[in-house]
Amino acid sequence: MMELKGVLPAVRSMKDFDKILESSQEHIILLETRLSQIDSMVKYAKQRNKKVLVHVDLIQGLKADEYGIEYLIRVAKVDGLISTRNNVISYAKKKNVTSIQRLFALDSHALEHNIKIINTMRPDYIEILPGVVPGLIQEVYEKTGIPVIAGGLIRNKEDVQSAFENGAQAITTSQVELWDFTTAKTK
């Protein structure tokens, strides 16, 4: 399992992808891309010594079944998978690829239900959305023992700092101006 900490750039466009390739960031999270772009994006990123995590649920043209996940791991050679789907997390774990289970904190019932599933699946990381809810990060960590990543609605440096202060190991954001934010305390 790779260690994820600090601010993790989440890329939504080719313009942002080009920016992150030129940065000192070690990790790239690919969001909202097309299956036809994955191979070349991963190849370019690896040429720049970047680790690539993909949000499986947002890849257009990919069926998130065993064969689609196998393609991402064996052919595209991604370093990690992010998903809300248990089958994706299970397959990533079987193939020793970093797994990040996305958890949407909609209400108390959904939170408790997702924590039960996560305690069964045991992903490498949990990404909580929205990542700006005080106290939720620590609660999820205490109930699972799995490192927490805060994502969603992280809009400014104060949101980043607050997430770290509330126990997040890492932050995901598509806000380009936050990608180099390094003054936050990280575990």
Automatic annotation (TrEMBL):
<dbReference type="InterPro" id="IPR013785">
    <property type="entry name" value="Aldolase_TIM"/>
</dbReference>
<keyword id="KW-0805">Transcription regulation</keyword>
<protein>
    <recommendedName>
        <fullName>Glycerol uptake operon antiterminator regulatory protein</fullName>
    </recommendedName>
</protein>
<dbReference type="InterPro" id="IPR006699">
    <property type="entry name" value="GlpP"/>
</dbReference>
<keyword id="KW-0319">Glycerol metabolism</keyword>
<comment type="function">
    <text>Regulates expression of the glpD operon. In the presence of glycerol 3-phosphate (G3P) causes antitermination of transcription of glpD at the inverted repeat of the leader region to enhance its transcription. Binds and stabilizes glpD leader mRNA.</text>
</comment>
<keyword id="KW-0804">Transcription</keyword>
<dbReference type="Pfam" id="PF04309">
    <property type="entry name" value="G3P_antiterm"/>
</dbReference>
<keyword id="KW-0694">RNA-binding</keyword>
